Amino acid sequence: MLELRSIKINYGVIQVIKDINITINKGQIVTIIGSNGAGKSTLIKGISGMVPLAGGEIYFQDKKITHLHPHEIVKNGIICAPEGRRIFPEMTVEENLDIGAYARIKDKGTAEKIKKHVFELFPVLKNRSKQLGGTLSGGEQQMLSIGRAVMADPKLLLLDEPSLGLAPIIVQEVFDIIKQLNREGVTILLVEQNAFQSLQIASRAYVLEIGRIKLEGTTQEMMENEDVKSSYLGVKINK
Ligand SMILES: Nc1ncnc2c1ncn2[C@@H]1O[C@H](COP(=O)(O)OP(=O)(O)OP(=O)(O)O)[C@@H](O)[C@H]1O
Ligand SMILES: [Mg+2]
Question: I want to staple 4 with a disulfide (CB 3.0 to 4.6 A). Which of 11, 22, 91, 96 is the partner?
Answer without folding.
Answer: 22
